[in-house]
Structures are given as structure tokens and as C-alpha cells.
Amino acid sequence: MWNCMGISNCLSIVCVLLTVWTEVSQSSGYFELQLIAVQNANGELSDGDCCDGERNTQDLRCSSDECDTYFRVCLKEYQTDVTTTGLCIYGSGSTNVIGGNSFQFKSAKNNQNRNNDGGKIVIPFQFAWPVSYTLIVEAWDWDNGTHSSEDLLIERSVRKERINPGDDRQTIQYNGLTASFEYSIRVRCDENYYGSKCNKLCRPRNDWHGHYVCDQFGNRGCMEGWMGTYCTTAICKQGCNLLQGVCSAPGECTCTYGWQGPFCDNCLPYPGCVHGTCVKPWQCTCEKNWGGLLCEKDLNYCGTNKPCKNGGTCMNTEPDEYNCACPDGYSGKNCEIAEHACVSNPCANGGTCHEVPSGFECHCPAGWAGPTCAKDTDECASNPCAQGGTCIDMENGFECLCLPQWAGKTCQIDVNECMGKPCLNAYSCKNLIGGYHCACFRGWAGQNCDISQNSCASGPCRNGGRCHTLLDSFMCECPHGYTGTTCELKDHCKTNPCEGPSHQQSLVVPSVLIPVIDSCTVAVATNGTQEGVWHISSNVCGPHGRCISQPAGNFTCSCEPGFTGTYCHENINDCVPPPCKNGGTCIDGISSFKCFCPDGWEGTLCDMDVNECSRNPCKNGGRCVNLLNHFYCQCQDNWKGKTCHSRESQCDSSTCSNGGTCFDHGDTFRCTCLSGWVGSTCNTAKNSTCDSNPCENGGTCVGGGDAYTCICKDGWEGPTCAHNANDCNPQPCYNGGVCVDGVNWFRCECAPGFAGPDCRINIDECQSSPCAYGSTCVDEINSFLCVCPLGRAGPHCQECEYTAACRYSGLQFPHGSRWEEECNTCQCVNGIVRCSKVRCGRRPCLLQRGGAGPDSSAPCPRGQECVEHQFLTCFAKPCHQWGVCSTPDPPPPLHTQCEPNSGYLDNSCARITLIFNRDKVPQGTTVENICSELRYLPIAQTLAKDCTLLILCDLSYSNSDAVEVAMVSDYPTSIQEAASAIVGALSKRHNSTVMLAVVEVKVETQVMPQSVDHLVPVLCVVFSVLWIFCIVVCVWWTRKRKKERERESAAEDSTVNNQLEPLRVSLPQHKDNRGKDIQHECKKLMNPPDRTCDGAEGDEEEDGEEEELRRGGMELDKFSTQKCSLAGETFFFVLFFLFTNCRSL
Questions:
Q1: Cβ within 8 Å of residue 861, ≥6 positions away
Q2: Which of 154, 166, 145 shows the shortest CA–CA distance to 98?
Q3: Is the pLDDT of residue 80 over 50?
Q4: What spans are recorded as compositionally biased (Acidic residues) (predicted)?
Q5: For the chain, how long is the longest CA-to-CA vector?
Q6: Is the pLDDT of residue 36 over 60?
Q7: Tag placement on the chain: N or C end, fewer CB within 10 Å?
Q8: 189-241 pLDDT, tens per residue?
Q9: What SS3 state is found at 325?
């Protein structure tokens, strides 16, 4: 056990070792050698021998086995006579085996300053570099012990030179008798070490001990605001009196005791000193006409205060005392009482009444004017509210009522109106200076895109077609014989029906295939028109372009004025070149621009100076002088203030704008402005917030004071225009097309079998006429179907075969045809209808009262109508527009324990939890919509080909953003594969916007028991049988040998003579040993105690003479008997070991 003393000693030793390791690891620099190339053409050593192998007897060349080359480097003090032995004083190093006879390091050769660990040797040192050195570079052949290490030298290079620390390398080429090699060397100082000897330490720091950085020579350089040898002295605020002020951080000025002021140049007078000054702290030197200990007594009260009014004569009597000699008609201590005018106190709001020959005169306080001080001074006279704001005059101040698009004290900050989402039916909302712009959908207009335009007002339908107004376009119901978007095309299949042997066939194919009108228009089936189709135009060209169809499914976009680009997605920048003058900010519009002028300028191009004197701001006869964004009043008759409105002070609350502080300097005033404002009255914004160009991606910055607004280009959004607007939301690509989002544009990468700008065009694979023998080709998705006549079969109807048609739901389907039956797929196979077995349930549909959902085109099958259902579970409100399709028969009852949120699991039941991102779920989504999407997946039809598949959904009880799904299958062994297939289908891209919102999927199934491995028990049985067989063979062999010995003994009994007598003396000992050996071997082979050895009994019953006669035969058989016993014993233990392991398994 360790005692306390032992632990203490160990800790001391560890501390010492750590200290020594720390000291050693802190070197001041390192010597670096980088190998570049090595050339040893013959693969020889320095003594002429081959590195490996022998020389060829014919050409005396070394064998093909090359040298295992590695390098040693010895760095020592400068020596005039170099000795290659002895200590490497400065250090040494070596490499591993890095090559054969010849090799090179390409990176080191091409770029010597590049780090390359191969062939690099670094020797650190912790002393002042002596500049002079001796370098010994040796190339050796590594051998695994077949030669002496001293005999394996390939080449040695000795160099004595001088080198100074630096980043540049010295390249050295050494050509020896045996080999040549090229290498580079340099000496570099460690971090924070400088100088020609790496002995100058300079470590940058910024703490209490110093604030400095180090230059390339290791000299300290103080950081900004610091000075001194170690940069520990802060540089105080400019103007600070260093005798009376100190600072602990740059820019400060902390006054010492007895001093005050921003620069500590004002002394503190004696406490209580009223009208006194000081030169040194705690003095109270009275001003003129003041006396007393605290200079509180007025020695010339009359001269200082002039208390006598109305011409009264003032006389100083005592300190702070006076008498007024009033003229006739006035009385009172200050002659303030007149006989008539001021008796009624006509001056309101604190005004002072003075008798004048004409009556009285009121001296009004700040903020009031008029003959009786009853008129509030109009601080709104200077129109401080910008951008159309309404100024409300208040007592000694004002308030601005800004328009909705402006904010701030003076209405100079633009409000982002798009935050309130004012645009109703629009692609996007764009914030402008003082307003916003809505990019309306087709068919909508108005400031907020809330006015529906009648697309049929211009009568676009031709040839007698009826026009129907849609959400963003129109639809023409064409008369018989016409087709096209505006009924401009003749339908020759109706006006000139086919004649001859090839009649027009009416083929019933329930699968929905979208016929192509052109590259920009497709026809979609509907029950709302007489023809049963809607002609829908593609929106790939966006709201500012018109799609023009081109051959081979291509298209081009014809852009509206002001837009350009492949998809008409780029607004032409009308601000290039900049049209706004005098620092105006240009805001690009649609084929227009708007200049946001700085203060003081106006006009379309900000080229007109605002005349601030046009509002006559100067009062009381003052003359107005117009300045840039300002005016100046030249006051008359001792009037003061910015607008000559006061006799008391130059300052009031409206003198300095934007929170500036006014200081009265007697005959003028000075405003101290807040950050971001300049000018004599703080009325001009620095626009400093836009100096750093905060708006990205071509956004325009408009700033005012400390705030700014970014006007983003189309396709960008966010406070700094840093986010690319998602043009793929909502999903514009149909039929599984993948939307590629660009900057204000998108592109659809169509799935196989589809084309067009939005992948709504199903490519007609029947154009190549693949069907033969008069068969009808039916175009499918990325394939085709040949409807063969009677007697024909095969993919192209090229085979002769009799097949029977199928009748289903009152319709006849030819052999091989496929169709959809709700959420299942059916196929006719030689008169037999085979359908998948998905339980579809009642299909969700949109009620006639309108609304938008995730699948606004979800109609009911023919013969059914959309009815209300009171038990639909809403997932994303509003859901009132959803109903279910009516069914003639009630749905069959469900008998299953496998339900959502039930926690039940078995071999035929699986639970799937779908977790959604609420922000991506379309409005108006129900749980039934999600369940219907799962049932209509193609993988569900594949899984239900041979077994029934039931899918149930409900809102999760534990997570409001999740939907619980229960799956039931007839085949218990396939439920896990079915759940995995459904999850795999959800992970792939698809056209449904509901499934795109899935962010996580959880699957729960019952764990199946592992299959039993029968190999180990079979092997155990086999080995057991072999073990028993071996025992039987050994017993049989022993009995056989015994019988042979008995027969030999009987044959030789008659020939015994007296010559055997000498042998009988030693027979008993051999007899006993032999009996014991036989018994021992039998016991090992025959373990049961009831078994006895026949050979032993026979030997014990024989007399001495018979034993002596048989001795010769037994000795001959002894070897074979022992060999059998030993083999049986060994085999027994092996089988016993295997049997034991079998039992454990």
C-alpha cells in the first residue's frame, strides 16, 4: 500500500519532470533541412559494395534490389577541421527509410516554401543561434542485421557555413563519389522570437501588463491609445489636462480631487460659493459687486438685477437691499404698480406686465407670444415633419403624425410595409421608399391585388366559344368542331371523321393522360365544361412574360416592357447610369425609377435646391437667408433665437433638430448633435449606416440617421437582401418534376416521360407508331400500350394469340389493358381482372363553395358528388372547404386492433409516425388528405398486389406536428418490408406539397425472433457417433489380438523344452506389470466399472510356464497395443472437448 510520504515523493518527482520537460520544449528556434532529390545510380555503398544482393558476374552491376535509403543529420559548432565523429553539439536528426536508389520530392523541388513532411529533418535549439555552423549529412542503407551498421554508409556531405534566420531556403547540391543529393536548409525562429540569433523575445499582449504588438524585427509597437516602454500608459482624451486629469483606458479623462469639466481644467469652488470663482480648488473669489464668505451678498443689487421698473431710480442701501424712487403714477417696492393698465394682470401664462405710455407691455416666457402672452409659439412654423407628416404644435414643443409608411420623430425613417403582408393575390411584395409594390397574379389588380379582373371582358374566345373567368386567366368552351386556347383551331377529327378500314376507335382507358395542345398549353380533364377539359397555360415565364411554344416541346418567353432574361425574371435596371444628382438614391421601378433626395434637395432628379425661406420662418422683422438644407435669420431689435422669436434666450426646444442639444452663446447658439446627424441645427443625416454597404446582392441602401432600409432586387429578400426568395414555393413542377430554384426564376427538371416548362406535357411515345397489325397505340407515362385486335398479342401485337377481353363495371377492356380504380390499379389478363387490394376509403374532395387546399383539383369519380363530412380532422387550418365523395353503398366495417395511437403491434401491424414542418404544410390540409396521399402512392399498389393493405391515419396524441399511420397486411411476414417501402417512397422527390413538408419518419414493427441455426447440433451428433464408433473398433481390435495370442500359445505348447527354465525366475514381475498395464488401458477405454478386461483375466489364469512361453509374442504386440491405446485416449479427449462445447452451445 502507498503511504502519504510515498505519494508526496511521487508528486514531487512528477512536478520536477514536468518542469524539465517545459524548459526543454521552449526552444528559441529550429534548423530545418528539406531533401529535394537523391541520385545513387548503381545502388552502391561508399566502400563500393552493393546495398542489397550481389553483383552480376557479366556486367558487374548490382542486383535489381535497391538500397533502403535513409538520412542522418548532425549539426555542431563551427570547426576548421571537421571531425565526423563526436557529439552533435547543436543537435541531430534522422529520417525513416524514404526511398530506394534514386528519388525526389516533387513538391519540395517545385515550391520550396511549401510544407512537406517527406524528407524533412527539423533540429530545434534553445540557445542564441551562433550564425556559424558545421553540417554533416549522411545517406545510409538500412539493413535488418545482415551487415554491420558502420558498413552501410552510402555518402557523407560535410558543410561549414554561416546562415541567418529567415524564411528563405538555401539550396545545396552535393555530388559525391557514390551518390549525389540536393537539399535545402534554413533557420527559423520560434514564434515570439526575433533577431539574427533568435534571442530577442517579444510576445504580443493586451492585458494589464501591456498593450502592444511585435513588428518583424521583434520591436514592441503600442496599440492605438497606449504609450510607454511597455505600452502600459493610456493616452487620455485629447485636450485633457494631464496635471489635473488621469485615465486608465484610452480616450478617458478622469479628474482628480478638486477638478471638474470634460478636460479637467475647471477647479471646484468652495462648497456653497454662489457668485464666486476659483483658480485653485476650494477657492471662492467673489465676482464684481458680490461679497460675503460665500459671495452670496449682492453689493450692487441695483446694477445686477435692475429691480426698479417703469423708470424708477434704484439705490443700494445694504448688501442685498435697495430702494426704488418711483416716478409719478407708479408705486410699489419695484415701482411695478401702475395706476391703471397692469392692475388687472392682463399678461397670461406667466408674462410680466409693464406700463408704457400707450398702456402696458407683456414680457412673455419661452414658448408664448402675443400682446398678452396668450398665443402659443408655433414650433411647427419651420415644418420639422418630413415626408408629408402632420405637425402638431404643443406647449414648448411639437409632435409629428407620420403617414403609415414613415416613422421617427420627424418622419424620416421608412417603414417596411411588406411586414404586414398587404398583398393578397400576388407573387411577391416589394418594399419601396414611402410605399410598396405588389406583383399581382394574372387576373388581379389594385394596390393590394384585391380587385379581380374580368379576363373575358375583351372577348378572347373565337368562333362562338363561351368564355369562363378563372382565378388568373380565362377558359374558352369551344363549340363542336373547334379547339385551342381561344377556339382558334379546327378539330378535324370531329369535322372529318375517319373512313375506310381503319375506323376511329373509342377506347376506354381510365388512366388520366394529359393531351398536349402546344409547349405552353395543356388540356386537363374536368367536369366543369361541356367538352370535359380545361386549357391551362403554363406560368413558367412568370408574371411578366408570355410563353411562346416552339417545336420539339421547347418554348421561349416574350417579356413585358421593363423585364428581360430567359424567364422574364430580371427587372431592367433603370438606375444605370445613375440619374439622381446631388447624392440622391435611385430606386429602380418597372420601366421607371424614383429618386429619393437627401435633405435640402427636391425634384425628379434631386437637382432643385429647396428654398427653406419660402415658408417665411423668420419672425419679428428678421431677414431670412436660404442655405443648403437650412436657413439663417438675421434678427433685428435685440430679438433672439433661430427664428427671432424670443428676447430671453437663443435656445428653445425646436432650435436643434433630431435630439440635438442647444447651447446659448449670447449673440448666437450652437447645437451638439447626436450620432448620425450633422449641420448647424442637426438637420442633416450623415447617412453613416449605408457607408458600410450593408445591402447585399445589388440591394439599394436608404439611410436616415441611425437607421437604414434595403430595397432588394427582384428575387432577394430579408433585411439585408441576403436570402434568395424561394421561387419553388408553391411547387410549380408537375408529375414528379424537380424544381431548381434560381434568382427570381425556376426551372423544372422533368421526370422520364414528361416535358414542357412545368412538366405537364406527357411525351407521346406513340409518335413512332410502335404498334403493328392495325393495333391501337395508347400513350402512357414514359411508355406506350398496344391495344391489340382479336388474335394478336405481345408488346407490339406481333404475336398471334387468342385472348379474351374483360368486363368490369359495365365496360369491356381488351386483354393486357390497365386502368385505375380509385387508389388501385387493375389489369385484364385473358378475361380475368386482377386488381391490387388497397382499402381506399372515402376520397377527400373540395366542396362547391370554393377554397384552396393542397390538391385543389381533387374531383370525385363520375356518379359521385362531394358532400360534407363532420368528422374530418384538420391539420392546417382552414379546412371548412373539404368534404368526401359520396358512395352508393356504406363502407365495410373495419375489424382490426391495429389503429393509430393504440400502441398495438403484431406480425401483421406496423406504425409509422410522420413529423411535419408546420411552416411548409399548405393551408387547408386535413389528416384525411395525408392518408389519401399514402393510399394513392404507386408503391402501395405494388405492395397490395397479392394481399390486402389497410392504411389508417389520425393526429398524434403526443405531438401536434405529427400524424400517426397504422398499416395492416394479410401477409404477416411482409409487413416490415411494406413499412420500409412506404418510408423509402416518402424519402424520394414527389409532386405533393404535403409530403414535401415531412421532416422525420419513425417506424415501429414487432421484432421477429431470430432463426435457429441447426449446424452446431448436427456437428455434435456426428462427433458423438464417431466417438462411439472408435470405442467399438478399439474393443474389437483388443479381443481379436487376444484370440490370436491364445492360438499361438496353444501351438507352441508342445515344443517347449528345458531351455526356457532360466527365464521363469523373472516372469512374475513382468506378469504383474503387464496385467496392470492392460487393466489401465482398458479402464481408460471402458469407463463403466462393470466391464472387465478379457486380456487381464486370461493372463491371470495362465500358469507361470504358459506366461513364459507367450512372453515373446506379447512383446511383439506391445507396441501396437500401446499405439491403439494412446490413439484412443487422444481421440477420446478431443471428442470429449467437442461434446462439452456442444452442450454449452
A1: 822, 843, 885
A2: 154
A3: yes
A4: 1096-1107
A5: 196
A6: yes
A7: N
A8: 999 999 888 988 899 999 988 999 998 888 989 999 999 988 999 999 999 99
A9: strand
